[in-house]
Amino acid sequence: MDILRKANDRFDNHSDSTVRAAWRDVRDRVKGLRSAVKASHHSERADRETVKLKKRRALKRLKRLRKEAPSRLYGTTLDELEEEIHSTPVRV
After folding, report:
1. What is the spatial distance between Cα 22 and Cα 66, in angstroms, rounded to a whole number?
2. What letter would DSSP give residue 44?
3. Measured between alpha carbons, how far is residue 31 from residues 7, 27, 36, 55, 77 in Å?
4. Which one of 38, 41, 64, 72 has the fewest beta carbons within 10 angstroms of its own beta carbon?
5. Which long-range contacts (CB under 8 A, 24 or more apart) does 8-16 make?
6. Which pLDDT band, with edges at 50, 70 and 90, does 1 fall under?
7. H/E element holding 40?
8. Those residues with Cβ within 8 angstroms of residue 55's Cβ, 6 or more apart along the chain or in another chain
9. Is the pLDDT confidence value at 87 over 50?
10. Between the CA of residue 3 and those of 9, 48, 50, 85, 91, what are the distances in Å?
11. 23 to each of 29, 49, 72, 92, how far by Cα in Å?
């Protein structure tokens, strides 16, 4: 199962609106990162610095989500998502 979809199932309908907002920030940043990586592999539209910036922003938003969501319940999902962000290739 896609990590982003799994996380979406856990956070999109969360009872706490702060967690939902933090999750939507993370989701949008990860989607933007994936899009930039795809563009960087197929053309020159997204350069290395753009992908690096999007990775930093996604990790920053993930840190905020970790603060809002109880880690004992969501730690594994957040760890998997963080690993995906860290392992995202940056075009040389």
Report:
1. 9
2. S
3. 13, 6, 9, 11, 16
4. 72
5. 10/74, 10/77, 11/65, 11/69, 11/74, 14/69, 16/68
6. very low
7. helix 17-42
8. 33, 85, 86, 88, 90
9. yes
10. 10, 24, 23, 11, 22
11. 10, 25, 16, 30
Rounded Cα distance between 33 and 74, Å, is 22
Written as one letter, the residue type at 3 is: I
| CA count, 13 A, side-chain hemisphere, 59 | 13
First-to-last alpha carbon distance for the chain, in angstroms, is 29
**Structure-token pair, residue 83:** 């690993």
